[in-house]
Amino acid sequence: MAKEAITPRAEDPARWYTDVVLGAELADYSPVKGCMVIRPHGYALWELLRDELDRRIRATGHRNAYFPLFIPQSFLAREAEHVEGFAKECAIVTHTRLRAVKDGDGVRVEPDPESRLEEPLVVRPTSETIMYSMFAKWIQSYRDLPLLLNQWANIVRWEMRTRLFLRTTEFLWQEGHTAHATSQEAEEEVRRMLGVYREVAEEVMALPVLVGRKTEAQKFAGALHTYCLETMTLDRKALQAGTSHHLGQNFARAFGVKFQDAAGQEQLVWQTSWGVSTRLVGALVMGHSDDDGLVLPPRLAPVQVAVVPIWKGDAERTRICEAAHAAGRELREAGLRVEVDDRDALRPGFKYHEWELKGVPVRLELGPRDLEKGQVVAVRRDDARKLPIPRPALARGVRELLDDIQGALYRRALAFRQDHTRSIDGWDEFAAFHDDPGGFARSPFCGGRACEEAIQEATRATVRVIEFDRPEEPGRCVRCGGAAEGRVVFARAY
Amino acid sequence: MAKEAITPRAEDPARWYTDVVLGAELADYSPVKGCMVIRPHGYALWELLRDELDRRIRATGHRNAYFPLFIPQSFLAREAEHVEGFAKECAIVTHTRLRAVKDGDGVRVEPDPESRLEEPLVVRPTSETIMYSMFAKWIQSYRDLPLLLNQWANIVRWEMRTRLFLRTTEFLWQEGHTAHATSQEAEEEVRRMLGVYREVAEEVMALPVLVGRKTEAQKFAGALHTYCLETMTLDRKALQAGTSHHLGQNFARAFGVKFQDAAGQEQLVWQTSWGVSTRLVGALVMGHSDDDGLVLPPRLAPVQVAVVPIWKGDAERTRICEAAHAAGRELREAGLRVEVDDRDALRPGFKYHEWELKGVPVRLELGPRDLEKGQVVAVRRDDARKLPIPRPALARGVRELLDDIQGALYRRALAFRQDHTRSIDGWDEFAAFHDDPGGFARSPFCGGRACEEAIQEATRATVRVIEFDRPEEPGRCVRCGGAAEGRVVFARAY
């Protein structure tokens, strides 16, 4: 793909995003409406992210398990808010056989009416109901608590308007599900896992996040309350990067998840669920990339270093490629993910563009003059700066450079968010702010559902998060003038 | 679960199997017909197996990717044999919304007729069709070949008679899919991946396998030919542990997967697919376990060593538990997967049984007398032998023991298979052999489809594999007396 194929962000952020994703070969459109194909480069990125999350999920005492893809439709209906939240966007299996039928000269297939299921099955839009029907069987006594499970799985929500990674009919995620003896333990769990997500977002993805609570209107269908992480995209919208729900005893009641406490009394458990998905790949793209393509934080880059040898003629080629492969081996032995691009028919400039499109953090150029000087020239993806590294210090030099890029991406994203976050008290300023290009507005809010809807209608902005660390600051709601306990963060959202 | 809960294998192999799987907490039945829940111990086992496979699949040049769960029904129908093979066992999505309807005093939900899909979607029973529709887009030139992809995914086949791990409506697997410029390259690929599976089966799972070709009747729907691995279960049946298909150009033709060769000519690609699934967990259980529960080869045991401290009274407890945890730490540092079972309310004997049920290869007992003697007592799961290990040599001693168990399990399984494999030429002996308890019969076979069916009807045995290394041995078919080129392996199969 040529560099010219990427639409500048300033011109059209939506097309820019799609161009970056397709150009980096992270994903492609599939013949199934709303479903995407995750290509090897994108899947490798997801695997690295998954491993970072998985390690932390295990370290906090959770164990992985796997529950069925299908949920009897009656299960979804047992928790009233829950079914309300998911009924309008699910894939429903009704038949189990295809039959051939004549169609003009040919033959086509259709569902065999005789294979109709007695009870239709819903493809999981989330797994609370199917999991907790099992929890009810496994949990007897307080000795079985806490039960701390996690699942890596595919999920289906029938979305009308889809976008690669950000909103797709099928996506991949992890969903943690736990049961506890007390509400307080459940609350600690919900906050602990939000902390894990925050650590991964900030330290691994280099994306600063705001953390806090959702309003009633935005919380998970069936939860007591929902905590979330919100990051700012480069087009100044909010992107929800993860949620953690205190489910209270709502599902425990619906599915009879009970335990005998130490005193011999039967009680309902307290539950939590929390998840992040392939949406995070979209957040990464939206948080760091530029008009040359993808920009990846080194800790998640499937290829951290691309070595590009530069030669003229066959004799030079052999010598330079050998040196390039030796450098590649040395970096690999130092634990880095490296590609040596010795493809024959392509010019160095073409290769540079390709590695830029793919977001490789460091490119190493190695030509005859570098060989003579005993150096390699490193080029940073984030700011295009060039830096010669003496050959004997190669591994250390590249490592330091990668660390520096990781930090620089975070600081750049943080500065960007700060530049586009404003405290706004008056309605006119608020409405104007959310007109293009917008950002995060910290504004006093009365907390009313109707008021939130009115704000959304007028500005397309919603309450993204009620920050944990907001100061108490009595004021007047930016919209209705009613009493506000403090500010909340408003933004347009993905 | 008490030891008594396991039905002896000699009494009822089917109940024995289920008791072992449930007793080890590998899996549980779910409320969805034919679908199981993979519990943490079973999922950890699958993850270890997955990692062993994944490493080898990458090392042979393949990259992981992810394709949609849903396949338009018309795609399945494009390859005639393929749809024939899968039409009768698939889950079909026809609607995308639930609606609430009054039902007496309550409310129930049903698929909203207005949300009916124009084209129903099949939940993937395998991914050839959806993947190759993308291959057609990505492959242009011989430079794009070979294309070597692999996918880890869930699969749905609507099975009538299901058994935990061995045959479930939903299962987890990997499916490799490749495209090549020539038939010979595809053939090499098919054999290479069969070799990878064989290595994992024999070296990691400690299961000896027969490898070779399937008959026409047993090959994959849409393939030119199918290669397979077959292992023998402890009830002397055959269990197919993996398949590798040469797809020829059948799917390439159906989906238009073409490339321009070096001479500028347009050609169809040659394709392969190959897969193994969570069925392998069933093969493991069926291949090594006993009447005390699961027996796991050390290389796949989620817990390789269980340390059980034995104490009386509080003072002893502190001292012994400290020593047990110190031993556990040392073994973990040596790279082993270890649990220290210091649970308070339970007797050592109860703990022994539990770790036996779970298939832990080595149990370490540590009591006051052992502490005095400066030793730990190791107990092997495979043969119950006890062996004191001097404390200073603990890590080395346990490691050697684990290696020894790994080898012993393989040799035991191989001897078992050899004991129950017979060369049989005459029909009466053949028919009697396949009556309980049976085994593998190497018998001359004419290769006829009708003859294979007649044999199955009479004995319930089918041709499991035409071994690669069978000697040429002209003879008379065990059933019809027609000309046979050599022997094939007949058995009843899971």
What would you note in describing this structure?
Two copies of one chain form a homodimer. Chain A is globular and about 80 Å long. By secondary structure, chain A is α+β, with helices and mostly antiparallel strands. An eleven-stranded mixed sheet of chain A has the order 3-9-10-16-13-12-11-24-27-23-22, with helices on both faces. A five-stranded mixed sheet of chain A has the order 18-17-19-20-21, with helices on both faces. Chain A has three domains: 3-288, Bira Bifunctional Protein, Domain 2 (BirA Bifunctional Protein, domain 2, 2-Layer Sandwich), CATH 3.30.930; 303-404, Anticodon-binding domain (Rossmann fold, 3-Layer(aba) Sandwich), CATH 3.40.50; 421-491, C-terminal domain of ProRS (Translation Initiation Factor IF3, 2-Layer Sandwich), CATH 3.30.110.30. The relative contact order of chain A is 0.11. At the A-B interface, strand 2, helix 2, strand 3, strand 4 and helix 3 of A face strand 2, helix 2, strand 3, strand 4 and helix 3 of B.
Summary of the model, kept short:
2 copies of one chain form a homodimer. By secondary structure, chain A is α+β, with helices and mostly antiparallel strands.
Low-confidence stretches of chain A: none
Please state the average pLDDT score of chain A: 96
Using the 3D structure, state the CATH architecture of the largest domain in chain A. Answer: 2-Layer Sandwich
Q: What's the overall geometry of chain A?
A: globular
Termini gap of chain A: 27 Å
Query: Looking at the chains present, what oligomeric state does this protein adopt?
Result: homodimer
The number of helical runs of chain A is 14
Proportion of residues in extended strands of chain A: 25-35%
Determine and state the CATH class of the largest domain in chain A.
Answer: Alpha Beta
From the 3D structure, determine the CATH topology of the largest domain in chain A: BirA Bifunctional Protein, domain 2
The domain tally of chain A reads 3
Q: Greatest chain-chain interface? A: A-B, 65 and 65 residues
